[in-house]
Each structure stands twice: as structure tokens, then as C-alpha cells.
Write a structure and sequence with these properties.
The chain is mostly helical. It has ten helices and no strands. The relative contact order is 0.15.
């Protein structure tokens, strides 16, 4: 499965999957979050073993097939690719650009406050260097011409369902505070079906399944009773 290959595959295989399945910066960020979650889970299993508590079969299988060192290496690969996407290719959507600009601006504000309160030349020099790098990053981000978002594989079907659900949501909103008629109840039953269909279509898309699929792999052991 995809999640098994992400977790246990070689770095070369992982890099190919990252390039083909996680082309956007946001997808890479989701993949990174999933890897971090998996590493946290593996660390928890280590601690569980140190207390003498036996692992369940699912936990043992995860522990035996995935190493923290491998996950750490893959995290480094994702971080490198994310950095290159910002600093070299500039392949960002408008939302991603805004997110990164806010992130670097907040960090600059915090560093500026620390610099004003800093005591000692070494600390001031360190903060000034950090601020200089942040300013460079902000300047690069501001020059990036945003790209249109990558289309979802099932975008057409999802759009059609969202159009269908709009009048149902209006009906539901207008009916608040009163009893629904039998016809309205029957009509609104379709709303839940549509929401479920949209969710199923989105889950099939790698934009969402990179973190989600790996999370399933990460937390399979938790379902067996791990705390």
C-alpha cells in the first residue's frame, strides 16, 4: 500500500513518491506532519518496552518494520524539497505564499523583540544574523508569482455535489426553530448522503490521503489499546 511504502520504503523510493504524489508545498507539509506523528508513535512504543510492557501484535509489527532513523531521514528529504520549492522554483499557490509570509513575518516580529531585550554582544549578533536571513526569505517570497492550485482528481464530481447541496443547506438553515415537514425531512436526508460522498471523493485524492493514509498506519497500534 502507499502508506506502507512511505513508512518502510527506501529513501530513493520515497523521493520518487514524494515527487509524483506530493507536488505541492502543502502536500509535502502534510507528509511531513504524518512522518512526525509516526516518529512520535515509535518513540512511545520504545518507552512502552522500557517499562516492560509487551506490545500488541499490531504494535510489534509496526515497531519491527519501521525505524526512527528511517523516518528522520525521510523528514530531512521532505524539508529539503519544501525549502527548494520556496527558494528555487517558487512553485507556490496564493494561499501557500500567504501562509509562509505570515509565518516569516511573525518570526521577524518575535526576533526583533528579542533583539531589543537581548543582553550581550554574542546574543545580539546571533539575532541580527537570524533577522537578516528572515528578511531575505521574506523578500524571496514577496517576489514569487503564485501558481493556480493543483486540481483535485475528483474535482468535477465534488463541484457537482457541492452545487447540489447548496439549496439543502439553505433549507436546513431556514427550518431552524421549527418542526420539519415529512417532505423536508426526506429531502434533507440527501444532505448527509452528499456530505459522505464528498468526503469519500476527497479521501481518494492524494492531497488529503498523504497525511491521512500514513496516519492510519501510525495509529493502527493505538486502536489495540496503546496509551
Amino acid at each position: 500500500s502507499s502508506q506502507h511504502m512511505i513508512a518502510t520504503g527506501s529513501n530513493a523510493v520515497f523521493e520518487r513518491m514524494l515527487a509524483s504524489k506530493c507536488s505541492s508545498w502543502s502536500q509535502k507539509k502534510g507528509c511531513l506532519a504524518a512522518l512526525e506523528s509516526l516518529k512520535t508513535l515509535l518513540d512511545s512504543l520504545d518507552k512502552k518496552l522500557l517499562t516492560g510492557t509487551p506490545l500488541t501484535d499490531a504494535e510489534q509489527d509496526l515497531y519491527d518494520t519501521v525505524s526512527i532513523n528511517s523516518i528522520t531521514e525521510k523528514e530531512a528529504i521532505v524539508k529539503r524539497e519544501m525549502q527548494q520549492q520556496v527558494e528555487e522554483t517558487g512553485n507556490l499557490t496564493k494561499r501557500e505564499k500567504e501562509t509562509l509570509l505570515k509565518q516569516v513575518t511573525d518570526r521577524m516580529d518575535n526576533a526583533t523583540k528579542e533583539l531589543k531585550e537581548a543582553k550581550g554582544p554574542k546574543k545580539k549578533e546571533k539575532l541580527e544574523t537570524m533577522l537578516g536571513k528572515m528578511k531575505e526569505r521574506k523578500s524571496k517570497l514577496e517576489k514569487i508569482d503564485p501558481k493556480p492550485p493543483q486540481k483535485l482528481k475528483n474535482e468535477a464530481a465534488i463541484t457537482k455535489l457541492r452545487v447540489e447541496i447548496r439549496p439543502l443547506l439553505k433549507m436546513e438553515d431556514s427550518a431552524k426553530g421549527r418542526l420539519l415537514s415529512i417532505k423536508e425531512t426526506q429531502t434533507l436526508a440527501r444532505k448527509d448522503e452528499i456530505l459522505e460522498e464528498i468526503e469519500q471523493l476527497e479521501v481518494r485524492d492524494w492531497r488529503l490521503t498523504v497525511p491521512n493514509k500514513l496516519m492510519v498506519s501510525c495509529h493502527a497500534a493505538l486502536e489495540s489499546g496503546m496509551v
